[in-house]
Backbone:
C-alpha cells in the first residue's frame, strides 16, 4: 500500500449526512440541527421566540397571549388584556372562586376542630363533676 492510500482499518472518510433544517414555529427561520427549543406540544422555537413567549401573558378572560405591557394583573392574580378591560371585564369567576375557596375551606376546618375540642372539654368537665359527686364506698369508712 502506498502512502496516499486510505488505511483499511479506519476506512474512507465520509461526509456527514445533511440533516434538514427545522423551521421555527414562531418566526419560520430555519434552525440548524440541534438548535432550538422543543416545546411540550412538539413545536420547535428559536431562542428569541422561546423567550418572547415567556414575556407574554395569557388573558384570563379571552385566553389570548398578550405582551406583559398590554395587560393588567388584577387582585386575583389574573392577567386581563387591554381589549377585555375596555369591554368592561375586571375579573373572572374562576379567579374569584380560586381566591375565596381556599380561605373558606380553612375556616370550615378550623370551625370543625374548635367544635370537636369544645365537645371534648364539656365531656371532660362533666365526667370530673360526676366523679366528684360520687359517694365514698362504705368499705373505706371503717378505717
Residues:
Amino acid at each position: 500500500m502506498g502512502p496516499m492510500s486510505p488505511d483499511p482499518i479506519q476506512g474512507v472518510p465520509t461526509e456527514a449526512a445533511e440533516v434538514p433544517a427545522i423551521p421555527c414555529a414562531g418566526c419560520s427561520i430555519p434552525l440548524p440541527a440541534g438548535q432550538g427549543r422543543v416545546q411540550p406540544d412538539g413545536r420547535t422555537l428559536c431562542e428569541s421566540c422561546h423567550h418572547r413567549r415567556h414575556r407574554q401573558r395569557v388573558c384570563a378572560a379571552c385566553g389570548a397571549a398578550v405582551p406583559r405591557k398590554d395587560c393588567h394583573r388584577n387582585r386575583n392574580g389574573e392577567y386581563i388584556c387591554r381589549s377585555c378591560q375596555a369591554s368592561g371585564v375586571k375579573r373572572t369567576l374562576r379567579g374569584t372562586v380560586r381566591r375565596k375557596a381556599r380561605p373558606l375551606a380553612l375556616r370550615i376546618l378550623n370551625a370543625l376542630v374548635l367544635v370537636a375540642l369544645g365537645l371534648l372539654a364539656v365531656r371532660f368537665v362533666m365526667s370530673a363533676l360526676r366523679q366528684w359527686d360520687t359517694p365514698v364506698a362504705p368499705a373505706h369508712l371503717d378505717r
